[in-house]
Design goal:
mainly alpha; 13 helices; 59% helix; extended
């Protein structure tokens, strides 16, 4: 199983490195102390790769032979896989299949897979002998993967229509899980894991296995009892009647068609015989209908009773929790507590009044009437004293608050020529002399 279609899986990066793979394919030393780095490097490479291969294949078990064929590379197989499996067993990642099966208390161990015919392994990891305790055909259960697969089976059942029944035939459950479990062995190991976790119970009844699941993942399943067996028998009868009615319906339709053919061919007697056979089939169908209705009514009552029992148990659990939560609470204690709270509130109000009166006493040496009279006097003087405001202007305001701006010239004046510049210069000098003469005379 493991070796099939492995070429489609992703190999580690080291897989294409011939030099590196030659080291990883070599056997382990007899003792780790000889070369701890080489030992640990190989373990770190092969251990997660073995788990990854099993997970991608959808199985929960491995064998040494399968692993060798899976990891065959350029005609060579890894020589240290047995040592890796031994290490994984010591660490608890793997468990011998026979030990795993016998550890579950079950009455349905004989699967037809000869699981109990596998001899229990006796591990003697003797490095002095240099021999491995792992045999090529020994099967080992991957503990992490079998737990994950058990969860998948449980949730798949809970999401299916089979979960409406308290018990389910083992064969129907296996058909439901065909897409999840790649082989029959993986499915049955997952069911053993569910049984070990008390989430499922299996009973072998008259050569047929019946499965019962818990309603919630954290609950523990009860053993199958007479009620569960009775429900299974009713379910089996219901299925048998439905199948029988379907066959009779087809028989009645066939007889009807035969009667039509005989009528067309003028064979009246044969047509009457076919019609009588049709009537007998329809009569049987009516009788099966009555029986089927009775069985379904009984099943409905059983399911309703089980629901009522579940609700009653929930009520009982809730009542117990309520009693436990209120075991120290009584009416007398509650009234006493309320009285204490009221007393403390009254005490707080008395303290507040005392503090307020103390503030009044501390400010009692000031005559409040005298202060009020002084305040009234200040207010009266403030009303009589005119406000210091500027005088109101007498002159009327100009009609135009801002003088009009002069019009801008339409063109700029012409620049003076050089001769005019000389004339202006002499004129300015004469004006300056005249101004200085006036200033000296005034002085």
């Amino acid at each position: 199983m493991l070796s099939q279609e492995f070429s489609e899986m992703a190999f580690p990066r080291e897989w294409d490195d011939d030099e590196r793979m030659a080291v990883l394919f070599s056997a382990f030393k007899q003792n780790r102390d000889v070369n701890p780095l080489d030992w640990d490097s190989k373990m770190k490479f092969w251990t997660p790769l073995i788990l990854d291969v099993a997970k991608q294949k959808g199985v929960v078990w491995v064998t040494l032979n399968e692993l060798k064929e899976t990891f065959r590379r350029k005609g060579s197989v890894p020589l240290g896989l047995g040592t890796v499996l031994e290490s994984m067993i010591r660490q608890g990642a793997l468990r011998c299949e026979s030990d795993f099966v016998t550890s579950v208390e079950s009455g349905w161990i004989s699967w037809g897979l000869d699981l109990l015919l596998v001899k229990p392994l006796k591990w003697t990891f003797s490095t002095m002998m240099g021999s491995s305790g792992v045999q090529p055909e020994d099967s080992f259960v991957v503990k992490q993967l079998v737990k994950e697969k058990a969860d998948e089976v449980y949730h798949l059942f809970q999401d299916s229509s089979l979960s409406t029944h308290p018990v389910v035939p083992f064969s129907e459950l296996q058909s439901l899980c065909n897409t999840t479990c790649q082989d029959e062995k993986t499915f049955k190991l997952a069911m053993l894991q569910l049984q070990a976790e008390k989430r499922a119970a299996v009973l072998d009844y008259k050569g047929e296995k019946i499965v019962k699941f818990t309603r919630t993942p954290k609950a523990k399943v009860a053993s199958l009892n007479d009620v569960d067996i009775g429900v299974y028998q009713l379910m089996k009868s219901e299925k048998l009647l439905s199948e029988r009615m379907e066959l009779l319906s087809k028989e009645a339709e066939r007889c009807k068609e035969e009667a039509r053919c005989h009528v067309k061919n003028g064979k009246q007697k044969l047509a009457l015989r076919s019609l009588r056979a049709k009537k007998r089939a329809e009569k049987q169908i009516d009788g099966f209908h009555l029986k089927l209705d009775t069985i379904q009514a009984i099943l409905d009552r059983i399911y309703s009773a089980q629901t009522d029992t579940t609700v009653t148990d929930a009520y009982q659990a809730g009542l117990g929790a309520l009693k436990l939560a209120m075991k120290d609470v009584t009416v007398e204690k509650t009234e006493n507590l309320m009285d204490q709270i009221q007393e403390m509130c009254d005490t707080q109000e008395d303290i507040n009044r005392t503090l307020a009166s103390l503030g009044t006493e501390l400010s009692g040496d000031t005559d409040m009437d005298e202060l009020e009279q002084e305040l009234d006097y200040i207010l009266e003087n403030a009303e009589m004293q005119p406000a210091d405001l500027p005088e109101v202007p007498i002159k009327p305001l100009p009609s135009e608050p801002f003088p009009a701006l002069p019009d801008l010239p339409e063109s700029l004046p012409e620049l003076p020529s050089d001769s005019s510049k000389e004339k202006n210069k002499y004129a300015l000098e004469e004006d300056l002399d005249t101004l200085m003469t006036h200033m000296s005379l005034e002085a």
